Structure to design on (686 residues):
């Protein structure tokens, strides 16, 4: 094999550098946008009672009256050191790392469960739909995908929460001590990814099925089942490899809507709270984390794709597809 | 060589193939009868949509899902394979008896598998079925690899050891077509159907691939069916030619007979439109009009509306086969003893003269 590990590592490294650049741009963008927010966002309820002089003094203390480039470089330096600032409203004077830290296990826990369920259901569903294309399983599967994607999540989730809880006799809101209350949020979160995986899988398999090499494989006397497993399935996983990591990572960071709907103390719910209460520093930190995860997901997708698809040219810029 | 005396491998009798398309039924093949003789090279020529591909696909049960053999029989070694329905039945034919080479080598190979693996996969598939007592594991990996390498060498691939581990995208178009041929040959078939094997390749490579196919035909004792619209290709490789038009074979004969003594006006028209046979300075001949719609029932000779030599009966009744020689027959009323004498187009007359002169010269020698 000419494509040794070395080439892959080299490719990964250059991709990594590019991701860093993206990250830097995202960080700066988030930073500048947050500067446009009203300055109340740095004070709790006391803002109304403070005089203009006090406000100015406090803003200067926080470094918000420094020239923008100084602010940006301080912000970057602090971020690199792992200091994301201090929450000013949601939990006043508590370092953001400590605000977010305890939320992570909830989001990751729910996220991983969701992913496991979605992969276990979505991939086989997509395979079934591709194999029975145009017949009943395909129509039912497509109906499900269209339903999930077309009906607004808000409607779908509230419906599930209301009727699901009374039908299954489970609590409407999440509580750590009652495992039964974990069911509905997981179902809600798994709905979307399952539909996505099924749709992707079906689509990529059907794409492969229509290709000429499948005709050749059949013409050489291969059983349909063998053609499916040895050619179609394997090749359909290549485009999947690019999409999966981002999808998985984004699920793990928590669903903004589901977490706030079921009162799960995770990161997604926190973002909603932070925005509602205009806690500028907290919003900034959370948006940064979410974008980081997104970038890492895309990065992993590219690397995975390079590993499974020999056609990607690793040495030069601009792949073959 | 007189094919009448040799063995028939495959025989199609009055084959009718239909498709449903958007609720309508289309008759793609209208009662074609054709015999394939062991060891010969038969070329099926015709324009796009004449049904040459569809016809041969039916030998392998590879018709698209909306198509079926409506009537007629396809006899392969005494079995009527036109009646085959299940995958299990077709697996006895596909690859093992009849293999196929497709038009576009760029898309005919799995882009994610090495060349070697794709050939080996085929070898394993057929060594297993060739000897029921042997299981796959009985044929060691090293043996299948050796066989695969030998086939790569046979199809003229240089450095087979290195190519074995390469992916299709690392090979040129001509190389890939060699690999596609290697995959087909690895099945050890009796009959090889080459569906426009050189259309996607550039001219210099075309000749190489055709030469390769001839060589393999000798070595593996193959019967080859070429499907093509390129009469230039046909002239080089075919022993016999079947000319198809609108889902029917209109003329069939030995290569020389079709080129030097064509009988059907459609064959005349095809030859007249060959650039190689054109006369410098004269505009190249083109067949006027378009082929008939296959959705409608065709009355008489399908070519009649485009045929300047058409007789009235050509619009009424389908012409039967008229024998020109034991190996040459054509479906045109012009061959009926009652038909008026027509002068074929000037080019055809020229070809005939040229041949007569050559024969005379041969005789004199």
């Amino acid at each position: 094999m000419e494509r040794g590990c070395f080439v892959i590592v080299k490719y990964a490294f250059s991709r990594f550098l590019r991701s860093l650049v993206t990250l830097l741009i995202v960080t700066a963008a988030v930073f500048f946008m947050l500067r446009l927010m009203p300055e109340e966002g740095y004070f709790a309820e006391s803002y109304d009672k403070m005089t203009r002089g006090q406000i100015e003094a406090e803003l200067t203390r926080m470094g918000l009256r420094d020239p923008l480039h100084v602010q940006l470089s301080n912000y970057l330096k602090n971020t690199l050191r792992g200091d994301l600032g201090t929450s000013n409203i949601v939990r006043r004077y508590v370092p953001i790392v400590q605000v977010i830290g305890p939320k992570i296990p909830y989001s990751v826990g729910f996220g991983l469960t969701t992913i496991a369920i979605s992969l276990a259901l979505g991939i086989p569903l997509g395979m079934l739909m591709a194999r029975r294309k145009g017949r009943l399983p395909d129509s039912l599967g497509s109906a499900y995908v269209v339903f999930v994607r077309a009906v607004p999540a808000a409607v779908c989730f509230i419906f599930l929460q209301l009727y699901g809880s009374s039908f299954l006799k489970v609590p409407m809101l999440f509580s750590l001590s009652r495992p039964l209350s974990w069911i509905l949020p997981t179902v809600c979160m798994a709905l979307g990814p399952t539909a996505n995986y099924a749709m992707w899988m079906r689509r990529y398999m059907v794409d492969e099925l229509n290709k000429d090499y499948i005709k050749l494989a059949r013409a050489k006397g291969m059983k349909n089942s063998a053609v499916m497993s040895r050619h179609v399935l394997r090749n359909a996983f290549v485009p999947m490899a690019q999409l999966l990591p981002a999808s998985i990572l984004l699920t793990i960071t928590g669903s903004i809507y589901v977490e706030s709907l079921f009162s799960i103390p995770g990161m997604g719910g926190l973002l909603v709270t932070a925005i509602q209460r205009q806690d500028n520093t907290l919003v900034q930190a959370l948006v940064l984390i979410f974008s980081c995860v997104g970038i890492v997901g895309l990065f992993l997708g590219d690397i995975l794709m390079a590993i499974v698809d020999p056609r990607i040219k690793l040495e030069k810029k601009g792949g073959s597809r | 060589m007189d094919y009448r005396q040799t063995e028939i491998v495959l025989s199609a009798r009055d084959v009718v193939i239909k498709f449903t398309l958007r609720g309508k039924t289309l008759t793609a093949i209208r009662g074609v009868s054709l015999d394939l003789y062991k060891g010969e090279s038969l070329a099926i020529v015709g324009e796009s949509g004449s049904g040459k591909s569809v016809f041969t696909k039916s030998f392998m049960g590879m018709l698209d899902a909306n198509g079926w053999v409506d009537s007629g029989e396809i006899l392969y070694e005494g079995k009527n394979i036109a009646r085959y329905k299940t995958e299990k039945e077709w697996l006895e034919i596909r690859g093992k008896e009849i293999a196929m080479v497709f038009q576009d080598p760029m898309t005919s190979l799995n882009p994610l598998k090495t060349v070697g693996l794709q050939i080996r996969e085929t070898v394993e598939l057929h060594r297993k079925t060739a000897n029921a007592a042997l299981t796959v594991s009985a044929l060691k990996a090293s043996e299948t690899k050796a066989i695969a390498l030998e086939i790569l060498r046979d199809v003229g691939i240089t450095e087979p050891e290195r190519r074995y581990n390469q992916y299709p995208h690392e090979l040129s178009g001509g190389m890939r077509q060699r690999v596609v041929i290697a995959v087909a040959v690895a099945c050890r078939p009796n009959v090889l159907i080459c569906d426009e094997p050189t259309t996607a390749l550039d001219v210099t490579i075309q000749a190489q691939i055709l030469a390769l196919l001839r060589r393999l035909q000798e070595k593996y004792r193959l019967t080859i069916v070429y499907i093509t619209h390129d009469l230039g290709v046909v002239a080089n490789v075919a022993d016999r030619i079947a000319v198809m038009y609108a889902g029917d074979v209109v003329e069939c004969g030995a290569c020389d007979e079709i080129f030097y003594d064509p009988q059907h006006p459609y064959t005349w028209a095809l030859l007249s439109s060959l650039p190689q046979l054109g006369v410098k300075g004269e505009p190249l001949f083109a067949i006027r009009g378009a082929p008939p719609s296959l959705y409608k029932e065709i009355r008489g000779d399908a070519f009649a509306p485009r045929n300047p030599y058409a007789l009235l009966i050509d619009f009424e009744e389908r012409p039967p086969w008229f024998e020109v020689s034991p190996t040459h027959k054509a479906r045109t009323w012009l061959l009926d003893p009652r038909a008026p004498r027509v002068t074929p187009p000037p080019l055809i007359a020229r070809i005939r003269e040229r041949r007569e002169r050559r024969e005379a010269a041969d005789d004199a020698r």
